[in-house]
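Consider the tokenized backbone below.
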């Protein structure tokens, strides 16, 4: 399989994979239909229970009595109803993370109801195209008190198609602002919709048996194991614990002087992909194979390069006295439950 393609299994559960040169680069799996936990991008009307003034946040109640932690919520008071977007999956026993700065995402544009102005994605470098997209956005807003971010997918797209999507996003916001009782007001896109919105590919295969046809199940089945084989003969273990994600890099049977460097560089290059397809986030501690401090810069550079194209926000916190590299990764996906097709 050459190039980039999107494979979608209609399920249940719905699954979507971004396949690049025959390898899974991203994987989305729809949560079970009977799972009641709020999902990322859902928008709820919530009741403010307690204002945390020093944090610019509030503790809230979602419909059904679920606790939420609402960030970026200036001006709310106890007892108020507020619109809130789910931004992450709650850890066991913790409140659902929410933000008052809701967004409406499309393939070409993102509507920002609480931040006025028109911006174009930094990835769009051509000055004429940036000016064209900015003009389209300004015309579409027509003085509305909202903002837009024109995404890189809009480059070269037909103006009418971009305008139609923006109008749909604005209609969605207008419906939310109309008022009403607490509850879920807007559902999250499913795995297939997110994949088609976020991923660029030359082809889309959307049919029962798509993963079989492309031979993806073996790679997905390997997610059952913490072990990840690396190029050059090394391997790493990626293991979620109650406190953090522990990553241990090993040289395998290679006893040469360059073994640690090879294993560490290979691990750094593949770690973001492994975290992505495994749906892992939170605090991450990486125990690389023993190396000199002077070699850390190259390993960290390889990791940062791999993270530069990763859609999940990840911060490289730095090295610990014990020589571990610590990361902080946004929890915006459920941990992947390894699945195999029914037989």
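A designed sequence for it:
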């Amino acid at each position: 399989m050459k190039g980039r393609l999107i494979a979608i299994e209609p399920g249940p559960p719905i699954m979507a994979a971004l396949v690049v040169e025959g390898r899974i680069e991203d994987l989305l799996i729809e949560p079970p239909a009977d799972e009641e936990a709020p999902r990322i991008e859902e928008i709820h009307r919530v009741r403010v229970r307690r204002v945390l003034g020093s944090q610019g946040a509030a503790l809230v109640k979602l419909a059904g009595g679920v606790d939420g932690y609402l960030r970026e919520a200036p001006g709310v008071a106890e007892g108020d109803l507020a619109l809130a977007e789910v931004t992450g999956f709650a850890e066991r026993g913790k409140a659902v993370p929410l933000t008052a700065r809701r967004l409406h995402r499309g393939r070409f544009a993102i509507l920002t109801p609480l931040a006025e102005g028109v911006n174009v994605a930094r990835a769009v470098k051509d000055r004429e195209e940036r000016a064209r997209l900015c003009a389209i956005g300004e015309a579409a807003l027509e003085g509305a008190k909202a903002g837009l971010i024109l995404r890189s997918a809009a480059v070269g797209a037909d103006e009418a198609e971009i305008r139609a999507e923006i109008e749909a996003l604005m209609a969605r916001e207008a419906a939310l602002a109309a008022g009403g009782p607490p509850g879920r007001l807007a559902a999250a896109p499913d795995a297939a919709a997110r994949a088609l919105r976020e991923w660029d590919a030359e082809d889309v295969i959307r049919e029962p048996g798509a993963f079989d046809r492309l031979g993806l199940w073996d790679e997905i089945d390997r997610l059952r194991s913490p072990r990840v084989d690396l190029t050059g003969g090394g391997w790493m273990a990626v293991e979620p614990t109650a406190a953090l994600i522990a990553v241990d890099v090993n040289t395998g049977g290679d006893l040469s002087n360059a073994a640690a460097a090879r294993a560490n560089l290979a691990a750094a290059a593949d770690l973001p992909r492994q975290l992505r397809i495994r749906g892992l986030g939170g605090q991450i501690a990486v125990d690389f194979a023993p190396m000199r401090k002077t070699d850390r810069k190259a390993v960290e550079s390889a990791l940062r390069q791999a993270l530069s194209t990763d859609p999940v926000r990840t911060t490289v916190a730095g090295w610990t006295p014990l020589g571990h590299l610590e990361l902080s990764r946004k929890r915006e996906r459920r941990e992947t439950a390894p699945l195999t097709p029914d037989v």
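The radius of gyration is 22 Å.
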